[in-house]
Amino acid sequence: MQVEVGPDDPRLGDYVRLRESSLRRSLESERGLFIAEGEKVIRRAVEAGHRPRSFLLAPRWLPGLADVLARWPDVPVYVVDEAVAEQVTGFHVHRGALASLHRGDLPPLADLLALDRVVVLEDVVDHTNVGAVLRSAAGLGWQGALLSPRCADPLYRRAVKVSMGAVFSLPWTRLPGWREAPGLLADAGFTTVALTLADDSEDLDRVAARLVGGKVAVLMGTEGAGLSDHWASSATVRARIPMRAGIDSLNVAAAAAIACYALAPRSAS
Amino acid sequence: MQVEVGPDDPRLGDYVRLRESSLRRSLESERGLFIAEGEKVIRRAVEAGHRPRSFLLAPRWLPGLADVLARWPDVPVYVVDEAVAEQVTGFHVHRGALASLHRGDLPPLADLLALDRVVVLEDVVDHTNVGAVLRSAAGLGWQGALLSPRCADPLYRRAVKVSMGAVFSLPWTRLPGWREAPGLLADAGFTTVALTLADDSEDLDRVAARLVGGKVAVLMGTEGAGLSDHWASSATVRARIPMRAGIDSLNVAAAAAIACYALAPRSAS
User: Which CDD domains match (chains A, B) (predicted)?
Assistant: First the structure.
């Protein structure tokens, strides 16, 4: 349903000031929405079952998304030129297409604990890193992700974008608390592998060679501080990626890619 | 040498509109400068031998950088409050410290070709990806990087920042041309490993198991298109990271981290 609007129209309220992350965090959680950017990502969001609240499109994106819009005839489609989009959102919308979607419910924790390969993030607060980790995990055949309460929101626009939509295809949910997380995973039958440079850590390759089959959860902490002592010491095994002396630790997204590759379920070769 | 300046002072010309990448690219190449952001990165740049042109600092950063400034008594230090810094640069400078430095000369190609483990990037045009690849390569013990003529500039502010200064510690240079690059590497004695999802590629693990010692160059292309057919087919071997069906390729920075990990020189274990 195409609707004419100007830049100050209150119906564009879902899209205001997309670069102001603290404003957006409270606005999106209050209204239970998130923003998808670009035709491909919008398409993946609706295909994953997220119900659109509205679309904000430059005219040239109408044909490409016609089938999506037709599935939701009652959802408003705000067609604006790129200058108006920029005035509302506060930045140049490179891909010219935005959608506001309902968050819906996260899957229950029990569904995630029933899987065989899950990534577990402790306090990764950067949206780019969360999105990048989920993309790599999905691409490398992991089945789900668990996030500590303080992790950044995977449905934040930047995380969605960096994940290339993996935040929709890879099941994920929040852990109910931080302290009890390692115990929860152990009770569910996971071998927990903590990624850490701690002195008692083993080379990741050796850990990977021992882990044949079974349920595996890899635990990664925020960069800078890395995993907490509590999570690292509670894990079944501590694994390190061999690093060159004197170099800062890898970015958490790079470390996650390596760990998901090294610990992925392998067919016998 | 502390200098008083206002926001419109022409002496701040090195720092204007840092978010406008096309303006910055021409300005920085014309003047032979690059911008380092944050105390840690500035420190690494000067320690790596880059000569500062000037500093732009909020007052609270003066003590922390006092030793660096003392080494360059004739270099102007523009002390401004954060509002002025924002007015000049066009964004909020989170770390409150900027430096403009001379680029200096890149190392000769022959120096890079004499190494044993180099990463070779073909047309990776995103600064974030270039910075992330160099950071992972340095952290995982690779010795240098070669960039095709169209790759993004590792000394662009965003690349420098994402690399955590690895663009200063890891030797890198430009390839003189695109077409002859695979031949150059072969002539220099490298086994060239092309990262590709081409049909005739082998699992990366198998390739890694065969490569014991010797000179190794890993070739990676831009995401989206991936490596060109020319580079992929000219390489000694084509390696693939096993991916889950239906998932987009990994981000090039994630793929690079995995390849640098899998093909890193290993001590016998």
Answer: SpoU-like_rRNA-MTase (cd18095)
